[in-house]
Structure formats: C-alpha cells, structure tokens
C-alpha cells in the first residue's frame, strides 16, 4: 500500500512507520520534524492547501520513473497532533488538533482515498486531565463509556471523532479512530515502571493501563488489513495493567463504589481492548513483565 502517514517522527509514529515499511508498504512520513531523507514531507496540516497538495504529490524520486503521473494513496494514517495539554496555550492545542484533523479528513475523502485511521485518545473519557480525581462511570472502560472531558486536548479528540463520523457518513469510506492509551517505548519499562510498582497511584490518570509502541504499530497494521467497517473507534491497550497489582487490589484501593460490569482476569487491563481484538484481530504481544522481575 501507498500510505500517507502524519506524525511519523513522533513517539508513536516512528514505530508504526518503521513497522509498516518493514512489511513492504510505501509510507510517506508527513511531519514538520521529518528528515529530508526520501519519502517524507514537511507539511503544516493546519493549512488545508498544503494538505491537499501533499496528498497529490510525488513522495520519492523513484515515483518519477514510470512517467505515469502522481500515484494515489491507498490509506491515510493521521497521528500528528499537539500531544497533550500544558505544551502550548489551550486554544492553540485545540485549534491545531481539530483543524489538522479536519483538513486531513476533508482532503482524503475528496481525493477518494478509501481508508483513514486516526489517533484519538484515552483522554476522551475525561479521567486523564481532570481537575482533581474522576473515577470511571464503570469498569472495565469500553468504547461506550461517556466521553465528556474538561481539557482542551481531550476536547479536540472528541471533536475529531465527531468530524470523522460525519466524513464517513458523507463519503462511505472506512474511518477508524484509535483511542490510544499511554504510549510506552521499550526502553521506558526499565526506566519508568519501577516507580509505578512502588506507587501505583501514579497510574490512576491512565486507568492503570498502557500501550507498547510496537503493539500500537501492530494495531495500525490490523486496521489497514480490515475493510468494510465504516466508522469505528477502538480502545488500544496492552492486555495487562501497568502496575503490579491484581484487578481486585485496584478495585479496593482506587475504584471503591465503581460498577464492575463483568468478571475480570487477575491482571487484566481496566482499559478494555476486546473490541479491537474481536473486530480487527489486534493481538498485543509485549508486556513490562517481559523486562522487569518481581
């Protein structure tokens, strides 16, 4: 596939781009921080003209050789964003994330690209950046959980989901949103997770969950390989929690009074990923337990 991938230089994107290229896909990294090393474009995604132009542009010198014009993209993966609050002013974060996503969806649908996969967020459930403590409405949190956040970043992601649903209704293409949990790179297990074992409360705002960057890359692959779902959103997490507690421990220490909708496994994530497994074949393969002892 020829894939237009925004944010491919970021923490999550660089793993997904490398994974997809290893599978033989032709991936154009569209990122303001992209290196000029072939198959990369520096694009301001808040500028609609730049987005349209980039989606109908040559991405590498080898594409000039056939002499048959600019090839079409088969899919768009949109990961680029201001990645959280407290980096830029709230209004700048909201504007950048919503306008870039609108422009990407608008260009993709008008240019007839049949699939868009976009990054939404765990923050849509309102817990991560809540002013104080907010407990889930129920656990485990699935895709039907309310999404009424307070902060500008999560608001932008909720708006993006609404826009994506409308663009799918308009065009009929496949548009899949990934509600990505806290992304962890392989080196961060040894660097960061011992502190989580000592103080599990550090993971409360992330619903005691995480997603290995390599497994997120696999989720993108699964979505590219699955056609015909229309509009869907998926929680993306690893199977276990990011703390060395049982689910009963977490319930008693942090979720007293919260409704539990079904029995849970001893170490099962509270950020339910069963929909992704069922509908696109997601199969996370990594865990902090493979790196840390005890």
Automatic annotation (TrEMBL):
Provide the NAD-dependent epimerase/dehydratase domain boundaries: 4-226
Q: Which CDD domains match?
A: SDR_e
> Which InterPro entries does the UniProt record give?
Epimerase_deHydtase, NAD(P)-bd_dom_sf
Instruction: Note one Pfam family from the annotation.
Output: Epimerase
Q: Supply the SUPFAM superfamilies for this chain.
A: NAD(P)-binding Rossmann-fold domains
Extract the Gene3D superfamilies matched here.
NAD(P)-binding Rossmann-like Domain
Protein name (database record): NAD(P)-dependent oxidoreductase
């Amino acid at each position: 596939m020829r894939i237009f991938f925004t944010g491919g230089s970021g923490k999550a994107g660089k793993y997904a781009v490398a994974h997809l290229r290893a599978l033989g896909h032709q991936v154009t990294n569209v990122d303001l921080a992209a290196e000029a090393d072939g198959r990369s474009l520096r694009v301001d995604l808040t500028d609609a003209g730049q987005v349209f132009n980039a989606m109908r542009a040559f991405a590498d010198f080898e594409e000039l050789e056939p002499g048959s014009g600019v090839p079409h993209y088969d899919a768009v993966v949109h990961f680029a964003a201001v990645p959280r609050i407290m980096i830029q002013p709230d209004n700048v974060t909201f504007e950048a994330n919503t306008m870039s996503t609108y422009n990407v969806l608008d260009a993709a649908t008008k240019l007839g690209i049949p699939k868009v996969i976009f990054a939404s967020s765990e923050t849509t459930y309102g817990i991560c950046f809540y002013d104080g403590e907010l407990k889930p409405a129920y656990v485990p949190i699935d895709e039907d959980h309310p999404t009424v956040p307070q902060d500008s970043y999560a608001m932008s992601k909720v708006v993006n989901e609404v826009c994506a649903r409308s663009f799918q209704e308009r065009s009929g293409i496949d548009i899949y949103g990934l509600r990505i949990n806290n992304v962890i790179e392989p080196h961060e297990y040894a660097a960061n997770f011992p502190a989580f074992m000592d103080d599990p409360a550090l993971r409360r705002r992330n619903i005691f969950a995480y997603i290995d960057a390599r497994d997120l890359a696999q989720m993108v692959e699964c979505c590219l390989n699955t056609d015909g779902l229309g509009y869907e959103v998926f929680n993306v997490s690893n199977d276990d929690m990011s703390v060395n507690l049982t689910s009963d421990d977490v319930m008693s220490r942090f979720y007293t009074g919260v409704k539990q909708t079904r029995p849970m496994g001893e170490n099962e994530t509270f950020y339910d990923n069963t929909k992704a497994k069922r509908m696109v074949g997601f199969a996370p393969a990594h865990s902090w337990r493979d790196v840390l002892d005890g």
